[in-house]
Structures are given as structure tokens and as C-alpha cells.
Amino acid sequence: MTETSHPRDGRPTAVEPDVISSRKLVTIGIGAALLFLLASLAATRLLLIRREELNPEGPPPYPSELGKPKIGLVEQQLFERSRRARELMEKQQAWLAGYGWVDREHGVIHIPIDEAMERLLRGERP
Predict the structure, then answer these.
(1) pTM of the model
(2) Strands (DSSP E) found in 10-111
(3) Of 17, 51, 57, 104, which is most buried, counting CB atoms within 10 Å of its CB?
(4) Cβ(65)–Cβ(74) below 8 Å
(5) Residue 41 vs residues 31, 68, 93: alpha-carbon distances, Å
(6) What per-residue confidence (pLDDT) applies to 79?
């Protein structure tokens, strides 16, 4: 031990050296690692036993919908790859910009939306 003077009264005081035992430090580290390894192995074993108890026939088969582009209302594709929305919008735009039958039996047709709005502004009624 070394001695140094106390800051208030100047009397000598003993100071212990700052030494950490490497052997103790390594022993504690190895012990902690072994404890972690044993706990991990025990948890894995318990998980496998519990899985076997809950599902003795093995895992269930994959759902038949797996891999389809749409399951129920949920899109399964990336939006960048999905063209259905764009195709639907183009179809609707073509319908709004063209002529066609709504009900042929009753003689009801549709006309382009721009023309219909102009006729409505002029006061024409169908």
C-alpha cells in the first residue's frame, strides 16, 4: 500500500492499488457464458417438448391461398407491381370519354362526360 496525505488535515492515509484480478474476471466471464449456454439449451429443449405436445401430427399444411395475388380484400403484391388499379382507372376514363349503351332494352345510352356537362350548362335535359 502507498501513503498519501489527507487533503484536509495533511495526515497520511493508506491507499489501496487499483488492481483487478484477471483470473477472477475471466472466471466470472466464462461462468456467465456457460450459464447462458445452459439456459439457452434448456429453453430450446422445453420449446421442442411443448411443440410436440401441442401439435403431435406435425406442422399444418400451407394455406391454399398462399402465392395468390389477392387473398380476400388484401393485396399480396407490391404496389409497384400491381397494375390492376391503373387498368381499372384507364377503363373508367375510357367509359367516361366515350359513347355506349347503359340499357339497350330501354334505349338508355351514355355520352362523354365533358359533352354531358356542356349540355347541362346550356339547359338541355335528357
Answers:
(1) 0.38
(2) 12-15, 70-71, 74-75, 100-103, 108-110
(3) 51
(4) no
(5) 15, 39, 63
(6) 66
Tell me how many domains the chain contains. 2
Q: Which residues form the domain of 6? A: 2-54
- In a domain? residue 62: no
Residue 8 shares a structural domain with residue 44? yes
126 occurs within a structural domain: no
**Strand, coil or helix: what is 102?**
strand
The answer to whether residue 60 sits within a structural domain is: no
Q: Are residues 100 and 76 in the same domain?
A: yes
Q: Examine residue 17 and state whether it is found in any structural domain, yes or no.
A: yes
Which of the residues in the chain have pLDDT under 70? 1-7, 10, 79-82, 126
Residues 30-43: tens digit of each pLDDT: 999 999 999 999 99
Strand residue runs (E) in the chain: 2-5, 12-15, 70-71, 74-75, 100-103, 108-110
101, 108 contact by CB (below 8 A): yes
